[in-house]
Write a structure and sequence with these properties.
There is one protein chain. The chain is an alpha/beta fold. The protein folds into two domains: 3-106, 2-Layer Sandwich (Gyrase A, domain 2), CATH 3.30.1360; 116-237, no CATH class. It has helices spanning 3-12, 53-56, 85-95, 99-106, 116-121, 135-145, 180-195, 220-237; strands spanning 15-18, 21-26, 29-34, 47-48, 79-82, 154-155, 174-175. The strands form two sheets. Strands 1-2-3-5-4 form a five-stranded mixed sheet. The chain has a two-stranded parallel ribbon with strand order 6-7. Strand 4, helix 2 and strand 5 form a beta-alpha-beta unit. The longest helix has 18 residues, at 220-237. It is globular. The N and C termini lie far apart (55 Å). 32% of the residues are buried.
Length: 238
Amino acid sequence: MNPDWTAFLAVLGPEIVLGQVVIRRAGGGFELRHAADRAASADSLPLLPPRDLRSLAQWSAAGAFRPLKSAPNLRRGWRALAPDQPALELCVNHLYPGAVADWFAARAEAPPVTSYRQFTARQSGMYRISTLLDDNIAGAAIRACCHPDFCLKRRLWTVQGLAPDSPAQKSIIPCLEPCAIMLEFARKAARWQQEEENAGPAPAADPGAAETDFDAPGNPRRVRFVLEKQRGADIVRE
């Protein structure tokens, strides 16, 4: 057994919550279900084979594609059984790819965390612009893009002036470096700064906007970015 799974099973106890999923010991195996269905009777939840969890994780209840598997919009109303550790590993990696490996890595004395500046410094081409955000605006972009409304991973990386997420803010799944969605959001934020598109009040968020359609004025992350910038400006004025 891999050391990451050995350590994870050692702390699992009777049950553990990983993102939005409750993992429980069930006889010699495990049961998985949505945390919102924690108290539901087993008979009331359709039983899914482990292989079906991959497609479950692809789409939200509203039918929207989930580009970020750690987004807090996993569908509820199901349960799955894993008869042993290899089956549990398959289930978890369908729902939260790499989560246990990252969890284990974050427990090291020196976790392999890559800061925003380290991450963007190695970008090239159209993403090189992400290095131009000053610390205040980069912090606003990070707070917006990685907000608990959009991602349940506990951000361990940071930029000057912005603290990592506290354990209580997110979940036990760590985030060791900026993801592709954060990189694209930072690129857009740099463009908005150049064009001064976000000088006015924040528009109303459009919950129907595609998660990564940052060109849509009502994109929830984009709206939150405007609010975070305004909040930062208010703090400076004070």
